[in-house]
Amino acid sequence: MTTFLGINLFALFGQLLVGLINGSFYALLSLGLAIIFGLLKIINFAQGAMYMLGAFFAWMALSYFGMNYWVALIVVPLVVGFLGILMERFLVRPIAHEDHLYSLLLTFGVALMLQGVFTHVYGSSGLAYAIPEALQGGTKLPFMYLPNYRAWIIVASIVVCGATWWLVEKTRLGAYLRAGTENPQLMQAFGINVPLIVTLTFGFGVALAGFAGVMAAPVYSVSPEMGSNLLIVVFAIVVIGGMGSIGGAILTGLAMGVIEGLTKYLYPEASTTVIFLVMVIVLLLKPAGLFGKEA
C-alpha cells in the first residue's frame, strides 16, 4: 500500500527524509553557534560563511589537488577551524568585553566580505561536487528509497553532535571550558590558560560549520549564498532551543528539520515560515527557550 487514510506514504516519508537531512545540518550549525555563544558569549554571525567555506574548500581541494571526499572531511574542518582561530585572535578578542552587538556586527561584516569575494571569483551559479563512490546508490525501504549518502549525513551528524555534547558536558575538558568562561580569573590562578581555551573553543565551533559544509557539498550546489540562506533559520533554531544550550541546539535542530519536512507535505506554503512561527510561540511561552535557563 502506498496510501494510508488518503496520505501518500512515499511522498510523506520522502519529505520527512529531506527534513531530517536539513535538520542534520541545522543541528551541526546550531551546535557551533550554541558552543560559541554559550561558552564565550560571542554572537558569531559568520557561522553561515564558515559553512560555505567548508563546501568551497572541499570543492577546491578536489578540483585543484585531487583530494578525495574522505580526506577533505578531516582536513577542511581543520582549515576552517584554523581560520576561526585567527578570526577570534585578531578580530573578535579586541572587542570581546564590549556589548554583544559589536561581535554580531563584526562577524556579519566578515560574512559579507567572504561571500562577496567568492561571488566575485566563482560567480553565483553554483558548482557541482560528486557524491563519493562508496556512498552512491541507495536502499529501497517499504515506503521510500533511501539514498546511501543521505543516510550517511544523518548518522554522521548525530555521531558528531553526540560526541560534542559528551565532550562539553561530561568530561574534565568540558568542565575546564565552562569554568574558564564563567570565572576566568579563578581558572588562571590554577594555571589554566583561559585565552587559549577561548580561542580553541571558537575554532572548534567554527570547525563544526566547516564539517557541515563538506557534507553539504555533494547534496546542495556549492555557492557563495548557501551559508546566508541558512543562517537566519539556524539562529531561530538556537533561540528556540535556548541560547547557549548545547543539547537544546542538537535536539531542536533535528526536530525543526522534521517539522519543516512535514509542513512541506501537509501545507507547502508555510514550510518557509513554520520555524519562525514556532520561535514566536516558544518565546511567548518560555522566553529563555525550550532548554534555556532563565536569567
CATH class: Mainly Alpha
**Which fold name fills CATH's third level, the topology?**
ABC transporter involved in vitamin B12 uptake, BtuC
Radius of gyration: 19 Å
Summarize the main sheet.
2 strands, antiparallel
Number of domains: 1
What CATH architecture do you see?
Answer: Orthogonal Bundle
Low-confidence stretches: none
Q: What is the percent of helical residues?
A: over 70%
Q: How many helical elements?
A: 11
Average pLDDT works out at: 89
Overall description:
The chain has a single domain, classed as ABC transporter involved in vitamin B12 uptake, BtuC (Orthogonal Bundle), CATH 1.10.3470. The protein is built from eleven helices and four strands. The protein has helices at residues 9-40, 47-65, 69-92, 100-122, 148-170, 172-182, 184-189, 194-216, 226-241, 246-266, 274-285; strands at 3-4, 7-8, 138-141, 144-147. The strands form two sheets. Strands 1-2 form a two-stranded antiparallel sheet. The protein starts with a strand and ends in a 10-residue tail after the last helix. With 295 residues, the protein is mainly alpha-helical. The mean pLDDT is 89. It is globular and about 65 Å long. Helix 2 (47-65) packs across helix 9 (226-241) and helix 5 (148-170) crosses helix 6 (172-182).
